[in-house]
């Protein structure tokens, strides 16, 4: 294992366990992760914070769900000792822009959904070269491969391997009885609200980032990969 400090985000007890084993540790938060070359991120919020940061560490996820190949808390020390020999999965991260402003970066997913109960709206999805679909629904979620096993899967989308540059777009409670779900490039993918019937809220990795007005476009663009260490202790994303 490298002698340089190891960043830890998300669980002070994990940092204490590593210190007790003689590992030099630099603790940070999801909003202010360490700028170390390697970071242990405990939980999905920590992974999102580290993955969306400007820094590009090698990330070891711990108990972070199915989206990335994470290890258990009990296996952290063994996993850290194996980082020098780790395989690296590269997951796309997307910048989210609306009304001319970048509102965030998504590691997991971007969701536009009606804020009022029992109300639907109409949405359109486009790539730079094609009109993909237009439909009435409660909302739409666009997930990266890391996010595809989570909420997007619960609304019918497929689970994607960490292939650079693609994601899955899935309507939420669509009016159609047999809705489409699309695997699409994440370069300049756009989602727009087509009817002024309900307030539509925008969420980036589960964080509310405002509303989307009728005719307003949300644009997703790749902003670099999140490098995830895969070691012997890493669990399958598909299990």
UniProtKB/TrEMBL annotation:
SUPFAM superfamilies: NAD kinase/diacylglycerol kinase-like. Keywords: Kinase, Transferase. One of its GO terms (molecular function) is NAD+ kinase activity. InterPro entries: ATP-NAD_kinase_PpnK-typ_C (IPR017437), NAD/diacylglycerol_kinase_sf (IPR016064). It holds the Pfam family NAD_kinase_C. One of its GO terms (biological process) is NAD+ metabolic process. Signal peptide: none annotated. This is ATP-NAD kinase. It comes from Haloarcula rubra.
